[in-house]
Amino acid sequence: MLNMIMVSRVSPDAVAAVALTNQPVVFALALFVTLNVGATVIVSRAIGGGYSDEANRGGQVSFNLNLLIMLPMTIVFTVVSETILRFRSSLFAVRFRRGKWKTIKV
């Protein structure tokens, strides 16, 4: 939200571009938050029951699962980001020239 406020001085197109590119980030964030809440439940129950080995194992599995999902997701989003934005018709470039901000559609 803050980044949309910061670019609102530039143009409405810049705000739209920031809002559209934030959607995949929010989707990924929701996925990882869900996984981490589940891991917190598992680890907390194990610690509360006095099973420290099970708590350690739950933490390790959570970390490995997050890493296993995050790395391919990052690679895919990095490689196809321009294609995703073109598909959504929202690829904008914001440039600063001669003391003025200019938004152009690529």
Molecular structure report:
The chain has three helices and two strands; from the N terminus they run αααββ. It has helices at residues 2-7, 12-48, 52-87, and strands at 92-97, 100-105. The protein has a two-stranded antiparallel ribbon with strand order 1-2. A hairpin with a 2-residue loop joins β1 and β2 (100-105).
Task: Write the SSE topology.
Layout: H1 2-7, H2 12-48, H3 52-87, E1 92-97, E2 100-105
Antiparallel strand pairs: 1-2
Helix pairs in contact: 2-3
Q: Mean of residue pLDDT?
A: 79
Strand order of the largest sheet: 1-2
**Uncertain segments of ≥5 residues (pLDDT<50)?**
none
Secondary-structure element order, N to C: HHHEE
Distance between the termini: 24 Å
Hey, roughly how much beta strand do the residues contain?
5-15%
Record field, number of beta strands: 2
How much helix is in the residues? over 70%
Descriptive keywords:
106 residues; two-stranded antiparallel ribbon; elongated
Concise synopsis of the structure shown:
With 106 residues, this protein is mainly α. It has helices at 2-7, 12-48, 52-87; strands spanning 92-97, 100-105.
